[in-house]
Write a structure and sequence with these properties.
125 residues, 3 helices, mainly alpha, single chain
Length: 125
Amino acid sequence: MGGAPVTGAAPSLAAATSGGLCPRCGARTLFAGLARFASRCRACDLDFDRFNVGDGPAAFLILIVGAIVAVGAIVLDQGVSPPWWVHLVWMPIGLGLTLYGLRLGKAALIYQEYVHHAREGRIVR
């Protein structure tokens, strides 16, 4: 149903991150959209909703993609001095880098949460 063959072995961080693989079984079921998680793995039934990735990847991407786009635009402008409309190319580049970066960042964080059994902290009284 759209997933990779289930081998029963957990994928590596690099494979899970780049392929959007389930951290438990390795099926390609982590995402239900461009950067939206599926609610659970269709192959092994791992509940992805229990993981809390939050906005960590988005905060880093604002800085990283913004720096790449800004430096690229400055270098292009200083080196070639193109017409203003040539700089419109930075919008799809920024959007593409952001979406791909969100997928990578979210997949990496969910993988790490699964592998290290991360959960919310609790205060013992």
